[in-house]
Amino acid sequence: IANNAGIPEENIIAAPDADTIYQIPAIFRKQKLHTNLIKTMGLAPKPKKDATKSWDEYYVRVSQPKTNVDIAIVGKYFQIGTSVLEDAYICVIEAIKHAAWEQNLKPNIQWFDVERFEDPNERESIAEELRQYQGIIVPQGWGSRGVEGKIATVELARTEKIPYFGLCFGMQMAVIEFARHMCGLERANSEEVNPKTPHPVVHLMKHQQKYMAEKKYGGTIRLGQWPCKIKSGTQLYNAYKQHMNYPSEVLGAKSPSLVYERHRHRYEVNNAYRAKLEKAGLIFSGLSPDGQLVEALELDRDLHPYFVATQFHPEYQTRPAIPHPLFISFIEAAHNRKI
What we know:
Elements: H1 2-5, H2 24-30, H3 33-40, H4 51-63, E1 67-75, E2 79-80, E3 83-84, H5 90-102, E4 105-113, H6 123-130, E5 135-138, H7 147-159, E6 164-167, H8 169-182, E7 188-190, E8 199-203, H9 206-213, E9 222-230, H10 235-242, H11 248-251, E10 258-265, E11 268-269, H12 274-279, E12 283-287, E13 294-298, E14 307-310, H13 325-336
Parallel strand pairs: 1-4, 1-5, 5-6, 6-14, 7-8
Antiparallel strand pairs: 2-3, 8-11, 9-10, 9-12, 12-13, 13-14
Helix pairs in contact: 5-13, 7-8, 10-13
């Protein structure tokens, strides 16, 4: 190859197939790719650290897990014709892997098409399938397609005490489900799904409505890193507290009481319904510092082993050897569920 390509032989680097992408750094290191790059670019090598040893130890956890943990992701972007997109929600999938490997667990992840839950002929069969999983995630999404299936998934997880983690849209679905079945608001919904719902428990705020009317859609989306004030004693608080070794420069956190998490959404929990939801038992464990935006919710640990949902995206801030605290706590709860 060197002769035909006209480049030095030491610059020929093999990239063989690997069982996991986390094996690739070791493959390249063995071929001294890192030293060749430093030399070629004229860079001064940094003092040696223990990075290679820690990465090798991490790969042992990745490749030699002790036991499985079975996680269902119920979404609507997996199915394309007869194909299944295994990299849909890739950030969520990797976040699950990072948290499972940290606990020497092998994540067995199964994708479920949420629209199956809306088919009367399949609803009970998919419910029975989901009961066999140790944890359920309803991830992000947009639009009205599959919403009733997501709400049914939340109800199943809540009533049968299956560990549940809702992400962004998954939190909004949890609010709707709780409003319908625990607060008696039978037609509760999000304005995104049904603009004419009599109980818009998830809605556009007034300043957003103005932009939407002017078709300035970009100005209606909450993007980037926002502060979240966490209620002491909650599962959310305990998760951050237990895993505060997570780099503070990522979460922007110096204590579990205030963290900074990333967002990408438009609709918000309607504050007009918060008191009613709280009275029925829903805990708003994370709020914006001014108390106006719901960032996270949960159920009391005495009522449910793990029912947590966030408006933000913790999967955006996970790292291979440093899993996000909330994914760690979710995987712990799922692993503890005996089927």
